[in-house]
């Protein structure tokens, strides 16, 4: 039986998925179908920003907006979800923010003279063969892609070729560890661990990954009904894309399905 079989029962018109787990890797559904990613976009954009750090466009501790590149990637800058929202001082609370990613893109464009969508395409999509991935709007939530492309991205996350392993290890490490904050749809988490663009499971409850999965699980989910998670030390990742928006239906189903998948692995 396919380890991804439970995804077939998701109540969405279209569902596609991929499991990357060595000789147990498999796919489900139309892996070439293009889906809106919503906030899974942040993982792709973060990778572009980290490449920019290695290319010395800026550094993690370069001032950007009201804080630094590191603060913005880790949702610790104090800026609100969108431009114009109320703000706090940096390092006071984990405030989930797409606007922070927009500030990063604007700063990269100012320093490099290259539109971020083009920089991202050249730095990430082209070398990984992600020909059906497009950043069409906000780097916080407006990209579209396929399971095939995101599986290629997940393999890169498990065995990086575009970033130094130390840079990626930093991205998977908790930044500003004492911060509390809200995971959209899941409420206040105390603390609310986050890396550089990557959400870190930690001890969060409730959570969209399985309760039996390691605290080191990293990834992101999107309001369009999408998620990507990986457990780096185990060399395992899963991508799921659908076209049913996240809601009450998803919270128990995603957690139960991911928990069952992890038990089988």
Automatic annotation (TrEMBL):
Beta-lactamase-related domain residues are 30-248
PANTHER family in the cross-refs = BETA-LACTAMASE-RELATED, CONSERVED PROTEIN
Would you tell me the protein name for this molecule? Answer: Penicillin-binding protein 4
Q: Which organism is it from?
A: Corynebacterium gerontici
Q: What are the leading ranks of the lineage?
A: Bacteria, Bacillati, Actinomycetota, Actinomycetes, Mycobacteriales
């Amino acid at each position: 039986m396919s380890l991804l079989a439970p995804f077939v029962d998701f109540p969405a018109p279209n569902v596609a998925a991929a499991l990357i787990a060595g000789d147990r890797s498999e796919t489900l559904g139309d892996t070439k179908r293009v889906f809106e990613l919503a906030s899974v976009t942040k993982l792709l954009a973060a990778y572009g920003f980290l490449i920019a750090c290695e290319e010395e466009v800026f550094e993690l501790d370069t001032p950007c907006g009201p804080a630094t590149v590191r603060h913005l990637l880790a949702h610790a800058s104090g800026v609100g979800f969108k431009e114009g929202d109320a703000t706090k001082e940096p390092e006071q609370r984990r405030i989930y923010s797409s606007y922070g990613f927009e500030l990063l893109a604007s700063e990269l464009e100012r320093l490099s003279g290259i539109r971020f969508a083009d920089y991202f395409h050249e730095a990430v999509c082209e070398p990984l063969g992600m020909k059906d991935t497009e950043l069409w709007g906000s780097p916080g939530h407006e990209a579209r892609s396929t399971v095939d492309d995101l599986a290629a991205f997940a393999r890169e996350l498990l065995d990086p070729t575009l970033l130094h392993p130390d840079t990626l290890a930093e991205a998977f490490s908790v930044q500003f560890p004492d911060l509390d904050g809200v995971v959209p749809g899941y409420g206040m988490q105390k603390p609310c661990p986050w890396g550089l663009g990557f959400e870190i499971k930690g001890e969060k409850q409730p959570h969209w990954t399985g309760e039996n999965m390691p605290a080191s699980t990293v990834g992101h989910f999107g309001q369009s009904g999408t998620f990507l998670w990986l457990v780096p030390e185990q060399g395992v990742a899963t991508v799921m894309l659908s076209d049913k928006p996240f809601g009450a239906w998803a919270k128990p189903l995603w957690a139960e399905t991911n928990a069952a998948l992890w038990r089988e692995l």
